[in-house]
Specification:
- This protein is mainly α.
- The chain contains 10 helices and no strands.
- The protein has helices at residues 12-27, 34-41, 45-51, 55-79, 84-101, 103-112, 118-144, 154-166, 168-171, 180-194.
- Helix 4 (55-79) packs across helix 6, helix 5 (84-101) runs antiparallel to helix 10 (180-194) and helix 8 (154-166) runs antiparallel to helix 10 (180-194).
């Protein structure tokens, strides 16, 4: 039976995901072997296959875990008892910060998504669409109440913001001049300015 934690108490699935994320980011998904992942995680292949059915399952989970976190946080912002401008700004800034905090995951996803089977690709796209739809609903709420301009369709506003978010992994550097929170604030402000009546 595989141990569920190491000496520091880190669960095996988390160790496998951390090792896979680092290796996929450094070498690319297709150039990383299962053997390299298990060696880096300090576990056996049996342990990997106990928690993940395949290397492809690891790739899917690298992205899905970040998306689950972002979905939970978006739901909390959307359901909060606050004016729509505050809720949208908080959600818009949060997706930037959480993407920067998981830059390797984002880079891996956009570089390697084509390696997923059609079924897994469809599942990931469905999860991402659900997130975008909830985000769009905030914009539509503001447009319908007259707080936001409805001159630009909500779908296009969503694409505008997430186009910026999806490119963070290509240019953001942790040692650069802006903190994640500063980048998030600027991008959220741009979004709200674009919606100003």
């Amino acid at each position: 039976m595989a141990r569920t934690t190491d000496g520091s108490g880190t669960p095996v699935p988390q160790r496998l995901l951390s090792a896979a994320t680092r290796l996929f980011a450094e070498q690319g998904y297709d150039r990383t072997s299962v053997q390299e992942i298990v060696e880096a995680a300090g576990v056996t292949k049996g342990a990997l296959y106990h928690y993940f059915g395949s290397k492809e399952d690891l790739l899917q989970e690298v992205y899905s875990r970040v998306l689950r976190l972002q979905q939970e946080r978006l739901d909390a912002f959307a359901d909060a008892d606050a004016p729509i401008e505050e809720r949208l700004r908080a959600a818009a800034a949060d997706v930037v910060v959480t993407t920067i905090e998981n830059l390797d995951d984002a880079a891996i996803f956009f570089r390697s998504m084509h390696h997923l089977s059609p079924e897994k690709n469809k599942q990931v796209r469905s999860e991402r669409r659900h997130y975008h739809e909830r985000f769009r609903a905030l914009i539509e709420e503001g447009q319908e109440s007259g707080v936001f301009s409805s001159a630009t369709p909500a779908d296009l506003v969503v694409d505008y913001h997430f186009g910026s978010v999806h490119h963070l992994s290509t240019w953001y550097r942790p040692d650069g001049p802006l903190t994640p929170e500063q980048v998030a604030g600027h991008l959220a402000d741009l979004l709200l300015r674009a919606l100003r009546p």
